[in-house]
Specification:
By secondary structure, the protein is α+β, with helices and mostly antiparallel strands. It has helices at 3-8, 13-17, 77-82, 103-113, 117-143, 146-156, 158-163, 166-173, 177-192, and strands at residues 24-28, 33-35, 43-49, 52-58, 61-68, 73-74, 89-92, 96-102. The strands form 2 sheets. A 4-stranded antiparallel β-sheet has the order 1-8-3-6. Strands 2-7-4-5 form a 4-stranded antiparallel β-sheet.
């Protein structure tokens, strides 16, 4: 279950393997809400199979923040760590196999991992990856047109284009489904020329 992390950080493989029993496996259908916006997060998840969407409600409209796929860790980190209400909902968009860990076990694992220099680097790398992803997405709303955002998404995250329903992709790009259809058509025509 933590094999992808063991592969990425082989120097921590044995330490990571020792935490496997803290995780609990569940299979859930699509559209399963793992955490509601406004609730305090008591769990963090690891995806074995499937896709999870982080989204929030803005005046009755769903806005997607991020998609998570196999091998990724998912949580409302600020809610989980600080015991405050989550600012977004976590929901599966495919039938999923996920593992969850409770806060007490996660804090033990985190403290144990951070007790070594390699572990500190591991935590830093994971946190930095997620922050960079959010920053790139935020900057694209300032810098890029919707068409450019879609083209970048096709290049950088093709799994989203292949696996996520169009209305969620439109929400992620900050546009309507109709606009996304137009952009897809325009990009297809560009490829044909």
């Amino acid at each position: 279950m933590l094999q992808h992390l063991q592969d990425k950080f082989p120097h921590l493989a044995s330490k990571l393997a020792s935490y496997e029993n803290m995780y609990h496996r569940i299979e859930v259908p699509a559209k399963t809400v793992l955490l509601h916006e406004g609730d305090v997060s008591k769990k963090a998840w690891q995806i074995e199979k499937g896709c999870i969407r982080a989204w929030f409600n803005n005046k009755g409209r769903d806005l997607t923040l991020q998609f998570f796929f196999e091998g990724q860790n998912v949580s409302s980190l600020e809610s989980f760590r600080r015991n405050i209400p989550s600012v977004y909902t976590l929901e599966t968009i495919e039938p999923s196999i996920i593992y969850w860990i409770n806060k007490k076990d996660w804090e033990y694992m985190l403290t144990d991992i951070e007790s070594t220099p390699e572990g500190k680097q591991f935590i830093s790398d994971i946190t930095l990856d997620r922050q960079l992803n959010y920053m790139r997405h935020f900057m694209s709303f300032i810098r890029d047109t919707p068409k450019e955002r879609f083209i970048n998404l096709m290049k950088e995250r093709p799994e989203i284009i292949k696996r996520v329903p169009q209305h969620y992709i439109a929400s992620y790009l900050g546009i309507t489904s109709v606009s996304l259809s137009r952009i897809r058509s325009a990009v297809s025509r560009m490829k044909e020329e």
